[in-house]
Amino acid sequence: MSSATEPVSDAAKAKHHATEAGNYFVANYPPFSFWQKEQVFAVEKVLDSPAPHDIPLGVYFHIPFCRKRCHFCYFRVYTDKNAAEIRKYIHAGMEEFARYAARPYLQGRKPHFVYFGGGTPSYLSVPQLQELTNRMKDLMPWDQAEEVAFEAEPGTLNEKKLEAIREIGVTRLSLGVEHFDDHILESNGRAHRSGEIERAYRFARSLGFEHINIDLIAGMMNDTEELWRAAVAKAVEMQPDCVTIYQMEVPYNTGIYKQMQTDGKVTAPVADWETKRAWVNYAFEEFVKTGYTVTSAYTVVKNPETIKFVYRDSLWEGADLLPIGVASFGHLGGIHLQNQADIAPYIETIERGESAIFRAYATSPDERFIREFILKLKLGSVKPSYYQTKFGEDVLTRFAPQLGWMQNEGFATLGPDEIRLTRDGLLQVDRLLHEFFLPHHRSARYT
Ligand code: SF4
Questions:
Q1: Which of 1, 188, 244, 358 would you label with 403, given CA atoms 20 to 30 Å apart?
Q2: Ligand 1 midpoint to CA 235 (Å)
Q3: Which residues are paired to 215 by β-bridges?
Q4: Mind listing the pLDDT tens digit for each residue in 367-413?
Q5: How far is the centre of ligand 1, averaged over its atoms, from the C-alpha of 69 (Å)?
Q6: Pocket (CB within 6 angstroms of ligand 1)
Q7: Residues 164-191: pLDDT tens digits?
Q8: Which of 54, 56, 112 is nearest to 319 (CA)?
């Protein structure tokens, strides 16, 4: 081990007080800004190669529609599409999926996991959902899927829709709650209110979903210590199987950032980073008191033995992910890929019989190793032996300066069998991860 005490960059040393515009969350590696149109051919090459027998396959279907655009939202979403336009989009997605299913690399493979994300998948009507999922199952049966995850906005759920979601085989229902205070929900642009959360949750529970998750966000506009504590108390009372808690960030393409520009402000009108970390820590502690376990920088789980995150874990370990729909991200045979980012060009390219992929990145073995190391650090603990076996890399030597610095700062404890983040390290893991990027990826814009 090195005795290095300095971080590699000034960014890691910064105390990160006020929330300024930009991406904080590290979702993938190498950064998206390095993905290029010129590398799309590499995906086509993979798709023409024989199907592998040892790589799990997942399918991600993006539903880009929402009732309202939240002020903090940075996803590609549309709030003005009518039923005919939605149907056209779904048909384009099904056509894209059918073309993939016929390629050699995917032939005969069945998904290990399926994920409906958005946007708001629960915005679809029951007939739309049934048509979509029946077709998907015809093309690639889900009978071996360990997880079928579905994101839902509480205000779009009635009993009929929840029953349909259950019937199509969803095992993990993820409710985008974010907060329980109606003024906070309203002032942050959320479409739902607390009464709708109650109703949707109660009925979903009665339907016997294997796994119900609720999402919360710490540090939304107008949140206070008192309101946050009340929200946590409410979430604890509901006893979901799992809770995901994000710290509010303000990327450049959000309504909040646009307002900051208009007002000439640098600091976002949301809680500072220390406050957000303290709030997430408070929530973790409250859940732990009732028997939950902290299983990552963002999650507490009621029963870690039975509640698995198949999508997340498979993806982080290098599974293939087939991305369907506008702006969807995927990973096939070591190549990252993303689809057309706007709905019109997405549908047009599919209708012309062309691929909707608009940028890609062929990862090197070293980049795949770094990716898996940094993403798994978000779980709070990694084993050096795992990386030695899978990649032939001694992480304690390779990352000696970064890890030594993290240990000195009280963010991690290091041992030959385990690298473990302290709670303080876990709560700010995303800003620490940049230190492990290859040098030429460190200073670049992430998205
Ligand atoms: S519901 Fe989710 S995807 Fe839709 S606008 Fe709000 S944050 Fe964005």
A1: 244
A2: 20
A3: 176, 244
A4: 999 999 999 999 999 999 999 999 999 999 999 999 999 999 999 99
A5: 6
A6: 66, 69-70, 73, 75, 77, 118-120, 153, 176
A7: 999 999 999 999 999 999 999 999 999 9
A8: 56
